[in-house]
Amino acid sequence: MKFGIFDQHDASGRALPEHYEQRLALAEVYDRCGFHIYHQSEHHSTPLSTTPSPSVFLAAVAQRTKRIRIGPLVYILPLYNPLRLVEEICMLDGLSGGRFDIGIGRGASPHEVRFMGVAPEKALDVYREVHDIVMQGLTMGRLDYQGAHFTYDGVPVAMAPVQRPHPPVWYVAGSADSAGWPARMGYNVMSSGPVERVRSISSAYKAEYGRCDHGDGERPLVGFNRFVFVGETDEQARAIAARAWKVFVVSFWRLWRDFGGAPLTMNLPDTIEPVIASGAALVGSPETVRRALAEQIAATGVTYFEGTFVFGDMTFAEARRSIELFASDVMPRLQDADADAWAPAPAL
Length: 348
Description:
This protein is of the alpha/beta class and 348 residues long. The chain has a domain at 1-35 and 173-341: TIM Barrel (Alpha-Beta Barrel), CATH 3.20.20.30. It contains 11 helices and 12 strands. It has helices at residues 16-33, 54-64, 82-95, 110-115, 123-140, 180-185, 195-211, 234-259, 273-278, 286-300, 316-330; strands at 2-7, 37-40, 69-72, 75-76, 102-105, 142-146, 151-156, 169-172, 188-191, 222-230, 281-284, 304-308. Strands 1, 2, 3, 4, 5, 8, 9, 10, 11 and 12 form a 10-stranded parallel beta sheet that branches. Strands 6-7 form a two-stranded antiparallel ribbon. A hairpin with a 4-residue loop joins strand 6 (142-146) and strand 7 (151-156). Helix 3 (82-95) packs across helix 5. The longest helix is centred in the last third of the chain and has 26 residues, at 234-259. The chain is globular and about 60 Å long. The two termini are 26 Å apart.
């Protein structure tokens, strides 16, 4: 079982220099504590993200860490020039010494892609073209592509990633139906939402992966995400998480409340208690969090867990203590929780 970080980088109320320095200092904590990967989101024109350019911030993280892998979750592919993105990926893989992973997606918010000049109804088609072009550039060293949105005729790629044929790729699946393509591609897959949805995605992914000939190499990670806060006691943890949540959730809803609509895969309440009750947030003492997470790992069949450990106005000291408690008192006791995750499900 591997454990990682998802950093939304939502506005904390602190000035950007202080906010960035605290997040970079926490990246050093993640590195020291033995987390597998540091993922961060990409959002635009919203306080849900103070790092709208993942590559810029991850370049800084690469210089402050030594072991932990890093990557976006996700690059919103319709917003990128493919050649430029190939070059950025090569740079980041080089700056990190081969610790970079690629997260890909089309964007969860139609408002954000529209603000950036992409018609939401065309985002999926653009996403598919950018994906194909980027993978071609990383593996072949040149671009030959004729599509509806991009055309390249023998354009050389003068760089190459450290990891060959390309860095590992991550895909966020919103349903079991969307798990087949990343399984066929051999990409790592992430999910969120109710336990039943995570389980269906995990099962569909592993079934399709098993039907493909991927050789005998290391299997991709099949993971899910939860908000996490670990305190000395349940009461302390809930009080801090509840306060920070009130700030976070305002940022989460800003674009939707200003421009209409609602997110397709996540509908967050204004208080954290219902989120805890649903299992989407793991909040409490180390034993409370460990027990709840162990139950969800067993119920979903995943091989990877990713926590959103920092949100809202959580202080640096609060976040660091929570992360350290998780790393010292939760992670070691769950290292073998996925021992049978790839075994066939027992017959009913």
